[in-house]
Amino acid sequence: MKLNKMAEKKLNLEKKILLAEAVLVFGALIYLFFSMSPTAISPVSGQTIFEPDFAFEIENGEEILIYSTPDFENSIVLKEGSEVDLPPGDYYWKVKNWFREGEVRTFTIQSNVGLSIFRGEDKDILENSGNVDIEINKKKGGITTGIEDLDKGESMIIDKEDSQYEGAQNE
């Protein structure tokens, strides 16, 4: 009978140890679940971005999901090292890891009209250095003598002459 009580006490002790281990493992899993949530750091929610070259900063994430509509259709998925050229506008984004998704943030890319001229010996180069397509007006003596479209990142060769060039965003 004493042997039976000893075995019973040993069994109860083993059950308590097993229960303590289960609680410990469960607690560790809950801690990992909450501490490993993906976090969006930059751009901060509501930020307006003026430069076309910016970087997303995230923590505990594997993918960045970018949407142009709040209903999250047609997402752009970025992984580490990915690059994307986003046109000006409002965007929604969130970070995702293998387990869950982070909170939704917003940012705006501001349109930027930029026109650069590079002087050459015989000819000059006019470059659209902004982030939108532009319409270039050529003026000579205060009179518009030509209008051309120049897509973002493109350039055109112009003659050296006494003309002025103005760029405006295409509507």
Give an overview of the whole structure:
This protein has one helix spanning 2-35, and strands at 39-42, 47-49, 57-59, 63-67, 76-78, 89-96, 105-109, 115-119, 123-128, 134-140, 143-150, 155-159, 164-169. By secondary structure, the protein is an alpha+beta fold. The strands form four sheets. A five-stranded mixed sheet has the order 2-7-6-4-5, with no helix packed on it. A three-stranded antiparallel sheet has the order 8-9-12, with no helix packed on it. It has a three-stranded antiparallel sheet with strand order 11-10-13, with no helix packed on it.
In short:
By secondary structure, the chain is of the alpha+beta class. The protein has one helix at residues 2-35; strands at 39-42, 47-49, 57-59, 63-67, 76-78, 89-96, 105-109, 115-119, 123-128, 134-140, 143-150, 155-159, 164-169.
Helix fraction by DSSP (H/I, runs of at least 4):
10-25%
Poorly predicted parts? none
Total strands: 13
Give the percentage of residues in beta strands. 35-45%
Largest sheet: 5 strands, mixed
Assign the structural class, choosing from mainly alpha, mainly beta, alpha/beta, alpha+beta, or little secondary structure.
alpha+beta
Overall mean confidence score, pLDDT: 85
Count of helical segments?
Answer: 1
Distance between the termini: 95 Å
In angstroms, what is the radius of gyration?
Answer: 30 Å
Order of helices and strands: HEEEEEEEEEEEEE
| Strand line-up in the sheet with most strands | 2-7-6-4-5
Question: What would the principal axes of the Cα set say about the shape?
Answer: rod-shaped
